[in-house]
Structure formats: structure tokens, C-alpha cells
Design brief:
61% helix, 7 helices, elongated, 153 residues, two-stranded antiparallel sheet, mainly alpha, Arc Repressor Mutant, subunit A
Length: 153
Amino acid sequence: MNIEKIIKTEIELPLPKKVVVNLLYTENWIMDKINIELKPYDISLQQFNVLRILKGQKEKPANLSTIQERMVTKMSNTTRLVDKLINKGYVKRVICESNRRKVEITITKQGKKLLGNINPVMDKFENKVTSSFSTEDLIQLNELLNKLRNSNS
């Protein structure tokens, strides 16, 4: 179904507007689907992203700015996300004794275990949502999305 039918407009949208509306609609559609997948684990996509970043640190602690730089969804409330993950037991925060402003954040065993449970679910979801595309389609789509971002940076 084309985007005009989805948003119930009878006007043919100009192509640049159609592309932007379609991207926004698709992003929300994917986010809704991801939230459904993550709901049983009582974790948001942003919290999941923080856990993956910390696991990718390979036991080295990260600070808040490192986490924020690597987030897929840029946001200013990284501290709040980390606090929620601490309360759930998935990450821990250590304040450096020699420099009280330096905070080191690491993933816990419980956080790694949660990721071990969620990663296969997310892999299955990603494969399902892209299953109608060939490998060549996925490469082209990825290149086009990169081109879109790079032409406007």
C-alpha cells in the first residue's frame, strides 16, 4: 500500500515530501514492532541499546558521553536510562575515587544474561522485517539511507 493511502490523502504528494513522510511513517512502524518484541523483557529500545554498547566495551567501563555518542537514538537523558538499568540490576556505576566527576559504567552478569535472551529475538525480528528484500535490495537500501544522511550533514 502506498503512503498516500496509508495516511488517507487523495492528493498525490510531491516526491520529496512523499519520501520524508514514508521514512517517518516507516520509522514509527518499525519502532512499534520493536517495542512489541521488547515488552516481555520490560526494557525500552534505548535501554537495550545502552546494554549492547556496554557489552561491546568488552569489560572496559564506559562513561556517559561514550554511551551517548554511540546511541542509535540520540537523546539528552542518558543518565536517566543508566539509572533505570542500575535499578533493574543490569548495569553498575562506579565513581572514581581520584576524580569524583569521573563515572564508570559497566554491564553486569544479569545484564549480559538479559542480552543473551533478547539478541536472538531481535535477530529473528530483523530477519522477518527485512525478509521481502534480497541481499542486493538491502545493500542498496542501506547505501541510499547513508547517502540521504551524508548529503545533509
